[in-house]
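[Structure tokenization] protein backbone as discrete codes
[Encoding] learned vocabulary of local backbone shapes
[Protein] chain in single-letter code, fold in tokens
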Amino acid sequence: MSSDELYKEINDHLISDSIPSIYLEKVIERKEFQLPPFHLIYQLKLTEQSPIHHPEGNVWNHTLLVVDEAAKRKNLCKTPSAFMWAALLHDIGKPSTTKIRKGKITSYDHDKVGAKLAYDFLSQFTKDQFFINFVCSFIEFHMHILYVVNGLPYGNIPKLLKEMDVEEVALFGLCDRLGRKHATLEKEENTIKQFIKRCKALERKQ
């Protein structure tokens, strides 16, 4: 199977399947995933995460959970295909940024790195710049839920407010946060409500 054919097959399942993880768990073992550019996805299986924040295990386990959560909500987004590809690729920056610091597993800047990697990945298969940029924006801003709610200085909130719909970033962030073992809907929905409220307040001040 060519890379283009594999991309199309993955796209079809992301858009059509109610539980895309079933297909993804099977396809990840194909030989094509050992080669560029799909090796970026395969490396998620080899990248461990903090057991405190991600008791579900490696990045691939987390990604499968996020993709399934996104599949439940994709039709609430203006561009469901971008929403689903972002769910699949949102943590591809983790393999190259994950390090052990003071005994803890960290992946600083994986959102920024991941957005660049996703741009390069998708550009090999489509010329649709709107789609590519939408996917990459979801990836770039997916950590802003944490940054905004906890008052952390790592994000770029003015850029988020300029480039994205806060409600859609919040929806994506909900899927990301629910893609963890033992996550509860009520708690994560409350976190998302805080994010939206603070973003709206910041938007009014601009």
Summary: The chain has one domain: 3-205. The longest helix spans residues 185-205. Residues 99 and 106 are 5 Å apart (CA to CA). The longest strand covers residues 99-101.
